[in-house]
User: Fold these one by one.
Assistant:
Number 1:
Amino acid sequence: VKAPLLALSLLAAGPALAHKPTTTKFTYHRDVYPILLARCGACHRPGGVGPMSLLTYKETYPWAVSIKNEVLALRMPPWFADERSGEFQHRKSLSASEVDTIVDWCLGGTPEGDGPAGPPSSIAGISWARGEPDLVLAMPEAFTLDSGTSDAVAEVRLETGLDEDRWLTAIDVRPGRPSVVRSALVFRERAAPENVIASWVPDQDAAAPAADGRRRLRKRATLVLRVHYEKTWLDEGKSVSDRSEVGLYFDERERGREVETVVVESGGDPMGAGRPGFEATFERSLPDRVDVVALFPWLEAPLTSLRAEAVLPGGETRELIRLREPGPDWPRKYVLGASITLPAGSRLQVTLAAPEEEPLRKAHALLLDVIRD
Amino acid sequence: MNPVLLTLALLLFPPAFTGAQELIWTCPDHREVTEAEPGECPICKRELVRSRIDEAWSCPVHSVVVEPTAGKCPLCRRPLYPVSREVAYACPMHPEIREVEEGSCPICAMALVLETTTRPHQDHNPKRGGIFFMAPDAWHHLEGTYPEPGVFRVYFYDNFSRPMSAKAFRGRAVLKEIFDPATRTTKEQLAYPLLSSAGGEYLEARVGSGSLPREITAKLQFEREGAFERFDFLFADLSRAEDAAATATAAGELVVPETPQGIASAIRDRHEIVRDLIARGAYNQIYVSALEAKDLALALESGAESAELQWALRELVRAAWLLDDYGDLGNREKVLSAYERFEEAVKTIEAAVGGSP
């Protein structure tokens, strides 16, 4: 009697406590799964960095309460940019109806509907998002998180061995063990904000800063790969190794526009008003006319907000980005939907606000990918 | 969750019975109806059917974990909370056959198999003309009343609105607090103990005379080692038991206007109702209008082109669900934080679409 009883109770234990006299019209397979696949599936897949896959009904419904809470708090999917501050490529945040569908389903009894029981075969492995790179640089040896370590940062030097200067259209990272690789940064020569040439998070598309943009890599250049590892509870207590790779895509075109990085750092004396210790504004002026194509917040502690504006020579202010509750997790590059042209003499102003528990002490910066006119 | 873990969880925590199964009568359409005697459903007049209720403990996040006794979730270590489950013997071939005793199917003679279903709890209507809230554990419920000047009472119910003895609970009625921005803590300046009535029917505090409306915050402890949870009551009038039925809330059919301007106006109307309910402290009634505003906002989504409007629609949906959640809990600070978002979203929608005069 025990086995069928167990199986039946599995099916029956599903519905969460329905609370209002409404039941959801949404089902997992028809309405919820497509959203989970598009918005959450890069991490919440078998072997992914999320501690549970959300790509099958059986694995999803026990998390209904958790999913509802994360979605309503805007913690998941992680996306710090305020949608009002402009259009960004590869936006991960949910739309009104996506939020509603998920929450309604989570609260309304989590019905399954008709559909396949297993995960789709198309999500099997992690491959290079832009196809095979022209040059793959692997970590010289595997990095191991022993059984007692739950997070770590590894920094390794990668020799390109290039015998001439090259232009790069894109730089990608492929994790060796996706379940522990939370994020990665690629630097030129030395790990410092001004040397960042690529950032990577699991749900990001391979960064192409602008259609005709490219970065210069000097011959015999050395890259530094910094990987942030974190175990989920599935890997807790295990010894886990990773050997990630950096993929370089070369530009063979005669001409292109060079992408450079402008850094606005919190290093110097803060200017402007604001509550000492909790709010600060930093600025930097631009000697040349540039097109801003992407923004990368370099944060070393959680903030309540970050706002970047450009004050044009005429005094007019142009908002570049606004982040709500950004933090060091999910170091994502925000690629602008359309580039913003700033005339020479514009001043970049970055305003930070810190939470009550943790005043501004650490260094923060905003990195702008720009193309000089 | 890892499928292996899920299977493991089920092997470790098969549905066990506490032996405290209770035979009740319920309505096939209104499972919240729980009667001790046969009869008809007070809502739809259908004939009640027999049902068995079994009490168990489940995790607030992993509903797959169901244990016969209290403890911690083996997957995430959260404390388990009590749930009620309906226990039935069902025919695998004939879903209409659900019996309260073991046996065989009267149609096909197959052996009936045991099924358990977590029962919904839906009844948040006050029983004594007071204000009804749910505790954060989603199981305990309470009703605050102000039956005569200077008297504040709290009645307790389980998740099927069955009365519980108040003797197991502790608490105090707080009338005055000050917030210290330097330490970001709240200090109570005037509080009265909530003491059990002799029969354990309710907790009562004598809160001194004062003119209506009266604002009283109950801080209640449900488990011996648990935190004191906060419930904010606002009594506009004395509570009268005969008002109980009249204050029951229910959602009607939502009519979506045809033009965006009409929809924006309808959202504004709902916003005004929500604002008034909050001002009156009727937090547990907010959900009807908040969720209607949400459904109206969703009707605007396909035509929303500006980033501003898309943001506002998403915020309104989010805030409406949060108001629903926090309204049940009776926590004013949380209700107000969700309302702030709701109001900003409504104003942004109005500015983007323009309401009809």
Note: The radius of gyration of chain A is 23 Å.
Number 2:
Amino acid sequence: MKIFSLTFSLVCSVLFVPLLVQASEPGKMRDPNLLPNVRYKIAVLEFENPGGKLGLELSQVLNREIIGSMRGVRSLGVLNLRQDAEHMDLNVSTVTEIAHRQAALIVVWGEFYENGGNVYLHTHLQIVPDDKIAKSRLALSLQTDKGEIKATPPSLLINFAPIALNTSSLKAIQESHSKSAAIHSNPSESAPEIGRLQTEDGYEVDNVQDPWMQIRTRQGQAGWVHYGTLEEQKELSELQAVVSFAQGVLQYLAGSFGTAESTISNYLDRWGEKQDKANLALAHILRGNARFNAGGAWAGPASEDYLEAATLLPHDAAPANYLAIVRLFQYRWTQEYRTEMHDLETRLIRAVQSQNNVETLNNLRIFYKCAAESKFLQRPGIDVQPYSDAISKQLALIEEIASKLKQ
Amino acid sequence: MTDNRHRGESPQEAAPSAKTECNQNERSGQEGDDQPTFEETRKEFFNLLWKWVPRQFKLPLVALIVIGATLVSTRSLWYPPLDSRLHKPAPHGGLISKVDSCAAPSADARTIYIFDFASDMAAPEKLHQFQEELGFKLKKGIRADLESAGLLANRTLEIKLCHEALVRDEPDILFVGKHLGCPGVISGYVEEQNNELKSVVRFTAIDPPLTDYAPDTVGRDVESLIQPDQTVNNAYLAFSSFILGTLYLKDHQFNLARQCFQHTKDIRPESEMAHKADEILQSLEQENPAKSLVSIEGPEP
């Protein structure tokens, strides 16, 4: 019996421990894959701060906040990557290269602008799915007997509203950094400090007691670290927007749809007011996707999210495509006229006209084929024949447009 | 045969040369002694030419040569001197060399240039610093905006500062733009009014031609013009999107061009560039394959 339980424990630890790992690893931007056995990774890059080391300290604060507060993601790795001797200019293509090298799904980076006594922080986040976007969870699809409806997100780059930091905020970054680097014997500020996390220290998280996490460094040092410093520093609290968005996206990509829905809702409620349209539109699309994936009962609220995204990005095809999936999921068998479907038709047509989007054109084709069978576009009082003729005419026109777009 | 005294060479310097010529003559003697020397040929050529000049033109020609030689030799005594400001230079002559130090000519088809803003400020170094910060912010911010709007599509649009040249008026701007081969130029001025700073930024697209102006924030300090607490001013974003649209138009990528012009309209409506973008959008609409697509209930009201 003893041998059996020992073998069972061993098998369990071999099979499941890698799935439960939560690790942080420092490195440089050109390093090869730093945590190859971890499934879901976020890379937090040293913020650009010409002539100061504040950029590295801030990225470390964010790193600890993200790993400590993440819920619902097994096998999480947060990489803290700094510049090396040869400075790397950070833009979408370079951060995407870093993400591919590290197999990271999210990259966070930013830069400081100094102006007199104040410093302004601009932060960006890029989602880099490990598969093609169309095959990743970011895309949605609905298989109908008339074909597959597809939707892909508009843009995977998010810019956050700049954060103004005054001199006391800069001190707050240093304080937060110092506070979150201290390793205590117990999860309490009054507990003795038994060590400090250095820039090169990687560690694993064994346990979390909000706002503390129990860690074990690669060198074997174990203890408790206070990760939740942003909430406590009023000047830095707006940085939680970045943490919250990154968490929501990773939870969604990891398939924790309920948790992702709640995190993104929190993000929109607390931080949405200041963010730009592209940022909010992606947040709404992700929340809509999380709701739709969470189950059929959420289809209504998911539609509301896509409609909100469509209001934010009126000329973008993506919200109309997502809306098409949800509404066809809801009404494709309906044998009566639905205003929602007429509204969807108008939106899809507008998206085809403004973007010549082939994905939308295909969705419109399937939409009409479904409409021909289920009559959700047939207004009361309109006979079957004129309705069928109108739909046939639309389908012929769509084929004509498709062939013109192929040329 | 040549005379070494005419060249001003010392006998020691001349010796090896003479020897060489001697050797050459020896070699040429072997080939044939009847070959005329260069001097002889030249003399013969001018004699022949002089004979061809009609008699009545000989005196005016000699007079012309003498006058020309006199003018050239007394150039330094002229007033105003050729290199003074009183003498009007060739148009854009000075600009070319300055602009060329910013970039290789005609090599920047995907670059928007920002030229130093004109100013009468007492501390030009502050303005220079402002330009540097503005350049850094624009490089980051414009790219981030275009990327997040999905408009770059694996293309590039660079932003470069050019401190070397100052461009003020429209002919200068157009000349510089065409000379650099760049699609757009940003310039402007900063001036002090009632103890406050006012900046006007000028946006110039080269093809199709467009000029737009954007008054910027008024502040006490030049650094406040950079508005670090905001993402990039919409005027810069709209202009960049417009320029990107013109580049897509030239590449016949009408769909992306349409989106860029639409983005310009969305982020800076009621501006000159939005009106121009609207004109282009309307002309593109004629080519839109989906223009005849309407809802089965008819067009929207």
Note: Chain A touches chain B through 47 residues (CB under 8 Å).
